[in-house]
Amino acid sequence: MGYDACMQRIAASVADLQRMADASARGLIASYCSGGGFNFMPAPESRSHPAVGTQELHNLSDELLLIRTDFRAMPSEFRQHNRYDYDNRGWLYLHCRLDGLSEERTPDGQTHCFDGECFMLSASTRPAPLARDVLGDSWRTVGIACRPAFVMRDVPIGGTLPAQLKRFQSGDVDVDFFFEGRLTSEMKAAVTALLYPSVQATIRPLYLKAKVVELLCLAMDRLQVPSAQESLALRLSHRDVACLNTCRQLLQDCVELPSLEQLARRVGLNRRKLAVGFKQVFGVTVGTYHRERRLDAARELLQRGAVSIGRVAADAGYADAGSFSKAFRTRFGYLPSEMRPAKVTGARK
Fold first, then answer.
1. Which entry of 31, 111, 144, 323 is 20 to 30 Å from 121 by CA?
2. Which domains does the chain possess?
């Protein structure tokens, strides 16, 4: 997928990703259309953006898709638009992450915040897509989409499947299966091997498929271990909560959102505890909290009526009035231009 495509909110089905993989094998690159769908064009000589990294899609078979992503030091303008809607109906999807932070909405309508070294396994035949906001500045992940027939043929786990997955295999349209957990050391090794294969290109497809099967087996094995149902919720001390409150105050006072690493250093927490703990305590992610506070401040300025919308948009950290107006309407339900300055009343003389 091209860098320009990642600058937008992208809606994609597994079939779209398969077409992208086929196009990539022919030397083409996908560009997302604002109205939906993808166009394909010749790829530039360099397949990576120097400040971002690479993403590769592989059709290992008609029933098996592999996505390898290695993004590092993503600039803020790249992260702000990393919103994806995935339609994985009819597919089992395994997402394994070595590094990265995101907010996920699953087909059942629940919202979750996840950091690095985690995995998610999901299956749904409902039309509601998975939605993902990428929040951090790095993203090292492996995604695997496979048909139930592939699982039963190449990963023969038989009767050990959870009941929801058994129903999914039988074609039950009301299944919404979602499981999350921490990567084991064996899973991390398999993900690393998939991201950075050390074999020659001539045998790489076979190697990748073998590693995909290994990773699926390890993920399925985790489903059978009771301790694998651990919650990703953190145990926070009084000091941790105090640090998170300090972070919230810092976010209220800054226009440009600092990186998670910068915030973590300033408040004395590690990155995971800051990201996951903030969501746990305040109910929203660091990025969402900062954006909402800037919009709240912008509305107050507009109510005074002495500043133009363009100036308020710039003060709120938006590159143009159009993107500001869209965010403003999402937050408050009306456009900045529809606001009327508050009337100032005083005692008559």
1. 31
2. 5-229 (2.60.120.280), 238-338 (1.10.10.60)
